[in-house]
Fold:
Amino acid sequence: MAEKKNKNAAPEADQELKQEIPQKPAAPRRQFKLTTNHILWIVGILALLIGSIGMYQRLTEGLRLTALGSYVPWGLWVATYEYLVWLEVGSLLVFTLLVYVFNWPRDLERMAPTLYLSALAILAMALILIGLDLGHPFRFWHVLVWPQWGSLMTWMIWLHQVYLVVLVAKLALIFLPQRAFYKKISRWLSFLSLPLGIALVVIAGSVFGVVIGRPAWQGSGLPVLFLISSLVAGTGLLAFQYVWFMRTPSEEYIEVSRRLGKLLLAFLVISLLVSALTTLVILYPGVPAQATALSLTLFGPFWWVYWIFHLGFGVVLPIILLATQTQTARRIGVAAGLLIATYIAVPLNIVIPTQLAIDVVEKGLIIAFQGPGLKAYYFPTTSEWLVTLFALAFGYLVFLFGFTVLGMRPKVENSSEEVVK
Structure:
């Protein structure tokens, strides 16, 4: 009986010992949570994959699937390229002038990493589009090896390469230790980017201005118009990024936001006045080719691109938002965002309607020769839209990688919600 009792007691003792030994808690299961960062990456990757269809078509079938032809050789890709150059160069021009020349508050200088990153991403978009617009994009290096300095295209390509080197150098300096020597180099590179940027925009406008067969492009006004448009678009991008990426609860943030809003308003008004004067100068003499191109812009089949998309949402509405006395940073950011999204209409209206006036420039040419590429009408094909989507998605992912992975954000100590005043 004693043995049986001891045998029964043993399991009970073991159970008590097990209870005394602390049990290791089970590792909690990690639950996947969809964040805003994940959504941004998913959207960018999906857009890149969808746009890859157009890239495949372009690389395998050339320009056959585009709506381009002998009368309209430049279309959506060239117009978008010009706009991206305006954004990229204009934002850096305005930033460099405000920080290094006009000595704006130091709070604005903290935007340097994000602004340089966005400029590099936009430059990548622009180079993809203009490269694919060429008949043989992989022969671009011929211009670098055998340049023809009498050609404005040569100057534009070389300036792009030099500008790219300067931009990459400025980005590299951000990752180096913050020493006085590196800061001095970065400052001098910023000053060097000023004449390079101005020259790039002016030459891009001059490429159109010297085309003999398009009278509506000719003249000295187009390079100036490109430079003004670059300042408008660049200020819009700088204001948009500062308002939405800085967002610090400080008086300096509010002050800089309002000053950027006033600067954007001034450039918008100047651009509107220049456009109005240019329109009057074209309409007064009534030169057929110029008047027809302008008429197509204002009253042609795509009149809404100018009146509603550009003038309504891109000029009038931002001016109303920026001209109010009670300006908040958020309102300035919305106005800048509207301008960035709609200002693409300006290069579209410069590039396309002028080429559609071919029957006025060379009377009877359209009916004299007919064929697949001989048509005085243009609207981008699905393939052109897909290639454009690919270029924009590629640059977007470049920016997202630098912003989220490499941490190229504005140098702010504490990030919190904006103080609305």
In short: Residues 90 and 246 are 20 Å apart (CA to CA).
